[in-house]
Each structure stands twice: as structure tokens, then as C-alpha cells.
């Protein structure tokens, strides 16, 4: 046992002093890197020829490790002619996405064994195309694929480290055929488990679950994203304040209404994919904000904002359930953002004559109200706050239940929850 622990400590000696949370799954940090890279690319694209020649925007220490601006951070590690040619194309036009998409696809075909950092950088490159405003079937698909690949590489990297520990115990066994779940079980059966190994097992478990969430992501993206949209299409709509409504208004002609409707539909379809990829949540919220600016009277933009926050909450909850307590402080603020957005959507929905979109809002709010009741302890919600949410949830489900028997059980659940919370209140 002691010998085994010694091997383990040697394997992770470089991490033992720095791991306080699950750094590989710190999507907020990766998102900040993407936003910084986006700002750098935009600065370089808007700068003068002289400044570009001087490379004043690119850090002086970027030559050896490379930079995200021209994707040389990938090229310097890959070191092949195809990637070098694509890096040169990106350098000549960093705002263009075509070469970045080709570079990411080329690297995904490369079967060499690269460190995890390369796949993290690859995810940043893929997401960068979307943050730069090029939201197409290709860029969304490649973002989803690199996100999934990154998760797979986290697991394979940790599997290798765990196999180092178990290799002497499994002398005559082909280690490649041992599943990661068997390795986890073998370690969990140990009575005395090293702290670093426990963190790695925890990270593997969370990553496996995140991979489950992406099972249908690629197929769904192919099926739902059929049209290209550019961020400047939304910018164009928000700059034209003569548009009073996306679906009506005296200031709109039939052609402009059709154009607005098409842009919104493309944006909503993109958001359904974006919300499932954590590193894209910030650009998703930016798109939502633009939809809300175009027409603040419609419930749908606020519903989409709530869905993005709820997806973030789902990932945070997973971390907490897997005993990653560093995620706990963000739970309540994230839920509060979601419930505020849901409430805004509800205020813009009709209770007396609900249309299809209104029914969706009412249904989701009823669900979220009962979720708040069930998870009030984990989310650290005050009793009076839960009571108010349940009261609004009851109003919503009371509209739905008379015309659809599927909501009767949910109506009873909310009524029971209300009785319970009123005793506390």
C-alpha cells in the first residue's frame, strides 16, 4: 500500500500543490481566454498596417509558445506543413473563420498523442470563430466536436496516470482494454485513497457525465442548424430603431418583417446549440441581449436567457453532487439569474389566451417553480422566496391544466408544495 502511494505521489507531484479545484473543467476561465482572444483579433483587424507590421498587439513572449490570434499556439505544437500553411492564412486574415475551421478539423484528424493543453487550445480556436460573429453550421458543429474531444482527452489523460499506479498490479493484462469505470471502481474500493487520486477520480466522474450530455449534440447540430447567420445581422436590426416589433408594427414592410423573422429564427436555433456548450454561454447571453433589445415585449428572448442560465446551473449542480464544493457558491446566483429571466418571460406571456409560445413559457415556469421547492436547501433559497415562486408557478399551471390533462399531476405537486411552504412561511 505504501509503495503504491509513493508511485502515485510521484506521478502527481507537479499537481499536488496547485490542485484546489477541477482546473480542466474550469469553463469560466477558458471562456475568459476566448473573450480575450476575440478582443485581440478585433484589435489587430482594426489596426493600421504599420501597427500590424510592428506586431504591437501580440505579446513579446508569444513567438515560442504561439498565440491564439493567428493560431500559432496550435501550429507551434503540431509542426507540420498543412497546419503551418493554415496558420499563415489565419495570420493574413485573423477575422476570417474558414481557415480556423480547417485548422481545427485537420488537428482532429491528427492521431498523434498531444498533451491536454493542445486540445484546450483547440477548443478555444473553435469557439473563437463564433465569438467573432461567424455563427454557421460549420463553426457550431466544430465547436461541439472539439468540446467533446476535449472531454474525451481529459478522461484518457487521467486514465494513463491511473494505469501507471495499477501497472505493477496488472502485469499480464492488456491495460488498454481496461475501462475507465473499472479503474474508478478499483480505486474506490481502496480504504485509504490519496487526496490527489480522489480529485482525479472526481474529475473523471464529472467529465463522464458531461460526455453523456453531449451524446446527441453533433446529430442535433446537423439537424437544426441549416442556415448561416452573422452577429452583424443582429447588430443591423438593433441599430434600426424604426423596428417596433419583429412580428408586426406600423414601421415595418412585409419584406423587412420576413427578414427580421428569419434572423430571429436563425438566432434561436443557434442558441439551442450554444447553450449546450459551456464555453459558448457568454456569446449566447450576448445574442439573447440583442434579441431583447430588438423587441422587449416578446417572451421568447427572456425564455432563451433563462435556458442558458439553467444549463449553467445543471453543470454546477453536477459538480456539487460529485462533491466539488468549489461550485457551490455559484449555485444560488445562477439560479437567481434564471428565475429573473423566467419571470420576465412570464410577464410577457398571456394567461387569458395563451398562444404556443406562451404555453411553453407557462410550462417551463411551472417546472422551475417545483424545482425551486425540491432543491431549496441545495440552492440556499429563503422560504418566502420559494413561496413566491410557487405561487407564480401555480398561476401558470392553473392555466394549462384545464385544457391539457398532462399538467394535472404537476398541478397537484405544486399545490402540495404550496401547503408545505405556507406552514414554514
Describe this structure in words.
The chain has 425 residues and is mainly alpha-helical. It folds into three domains: 211 residues, no CATH class; 72 residues, no CATH class; 127 residues, no CATH class. The protein has 20 helices and two strands. The chain has a two-stranded antiparallel sheet. The longest helix has 30 residues. The radius of gyration is 25 Å and the shape is flat. 36% of the residues are buried.
Draw up the topology in text.
Blueprint: H1 2-11, H2 27-46, H3 49-54, H4 62-65, H5 72-78, H6 81-92, H7 98-109, H8 116-131, E1 134-135, H9 137-166, H10 180-188, H11 195-213, H12 217-224, E2 229-230, H13 231-239, H14 254-274, H15 281-294, H16 300-321, H17 328-347, H18 356-374, H19 383-400, H20 408-424
Antiparallel strand pairs: 1-2
Helix pairs in contact: 1-9, 2-8, 6-7, 7-8, 7-9, 8-9, 9-11, 9-12, 13-15, 14-15, 15-16, 16-17, 17-18, 18-19, 18-20, 19-20
**Tally of separate domains:** 3
The spatial strand order of the largest sheet comes to 1-2
Helix/strand order: HHHHHHHHEHHHHEHHHHHHHH
The portion of residues forming beta strands comes to under 5%
Biggest sheet descriptor: 2 strands, antiparallel
Total helical elements: 20
Class from secondary-structure proportions: mainly alpha
How many whole angstroms does the radius of gyration measure? Answer: 25 Å
Beta strand count: 2
Ranges where pLDDT stays below 50 over 5 or more residues in a row are: 1-20, 241-251
Provide the helix percentage: 55-70%
Assembly state: single chain
What best-fitting shape do the alpha-carbon axes yield? flat
What is the CA-CA span between the terminal residues? Answer: 54 Å
Average pLDDT over all residues: 85
Amino acid at each position: 500500500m505504501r509503495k503504491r502511494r509513493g508511485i502515485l505521489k510521484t506521478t502527481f507531484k507537479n499537481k499536488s500543490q496547485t490542485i484546489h479545484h477541477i482546473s480542466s473543467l474550469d469553463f469560466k476561465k477558458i471562456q475568459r481566454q476566448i473573450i480575450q482572444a476575440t478582443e485581440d483579433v478585433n484589435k489587430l483587424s482594426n489596426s493600421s498596417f504599420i501597427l500590424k507590421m510592428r506586431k504591437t498587439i501580440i505579446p513579446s513572449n508569444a513567438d515560442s509558445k504561439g498565440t491564439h490570434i493567428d493560431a500559432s499556439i496550435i501550429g507551434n505544437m503540431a509542426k507540420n506543413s498543412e497546419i503551418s500553411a493554415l496558420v499563415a492564412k489565419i495570420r493574413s486574415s485573423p477575422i476570417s473563420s474558414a481557415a480556423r475551421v480547417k485548422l481545427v478539423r485537420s488537428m482532429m484528424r491528427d492521431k498523434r498523442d498531444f498533451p491536454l493543453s493542445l486540445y484546450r487550445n483547440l477548443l478555444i480556436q473553435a469557439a473563437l470563430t463564433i465569438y467573432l460573429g461567424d455563427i454557421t453550421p460549420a463553426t457550431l458543429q466544430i465547436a461541439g466536436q472539439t468540446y467533446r474531444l476535449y472531454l474525451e482527452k481529459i478522461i484518457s489523460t487521467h486514465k494513463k496516470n491511473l494505469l501507471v499506479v495499477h501497472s505493477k498490479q496488472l502485469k499480464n493484462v492488456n491495460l488498454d482494454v481496461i475501462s475507465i469505470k473499472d479503474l474508478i471502481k478499483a480505486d474506490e474500493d481502496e480504504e485509504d485513497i490519496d487526496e490527489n487520486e480522489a480529485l482525479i477520480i472526481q474529475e473523471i466522474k464529472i467529465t463522464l457525465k458531461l460526455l453523456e450530455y453531449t451524446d446527441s449534440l453533433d446529430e442535433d447540430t446537423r439537424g437544426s442548424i441549416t442556415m448561416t447567420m452573422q452577429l452583424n445581422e443582429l447588430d443591423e436590426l438593433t441599430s434600426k430603431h424604426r423596428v417596433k416589433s419583429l412580428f408586426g408594427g406600423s414601421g415595418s414592410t412585409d419584406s423587412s418583417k420576413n427578414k427580421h423573422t428569419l434572423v430571429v429564427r436563425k438566432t434561436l436555433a443557434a442558441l439551442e446549440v450554444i447553450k449546450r456548450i459551456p464555453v459558448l454561454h457568454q456569446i449566447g447571453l450576448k445574442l439573447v441581449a440583442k434579441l431583447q433589445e430588438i423587441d422587449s415585449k416578446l417572451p421568447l428572448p427572456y425564455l432563451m436567457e433563462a435556458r442558458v442560465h439553467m444549463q449553467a446551473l445543471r453543470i454546477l449542480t453536477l459538480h456539487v453532487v460529485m462533491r466539488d464544493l468549489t461550485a457551490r457558491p455559484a449555485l444560488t446566483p445562477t439560479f437567481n439569474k434564471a428565475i429573473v429571466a423566467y419571470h420576465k418571460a412570464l410577464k410577457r406571456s398571456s394567461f387569458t389566451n395563451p398562444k404556443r409560445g406562451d404555453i411553453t413559457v407557462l410550462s417551463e415556469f411551472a417546472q422551475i417553480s417545483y424545482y425551486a421547492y425540491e432543491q431549496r436547501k441545495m440552492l440556499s433559497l429563503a422560504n418566502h422566496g420559494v413561496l413566491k415562486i410557487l405561487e407564480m408557478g401555480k398561476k401558470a399551471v392553473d392555466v394549462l391544466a384545464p385544457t391539457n390533462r398532462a399538467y394535472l399531476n404537476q398541478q397537484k405537486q405544486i399545490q402540495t408544495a404550496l401547503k408545505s411552504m405556507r406552514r414554514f412561511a
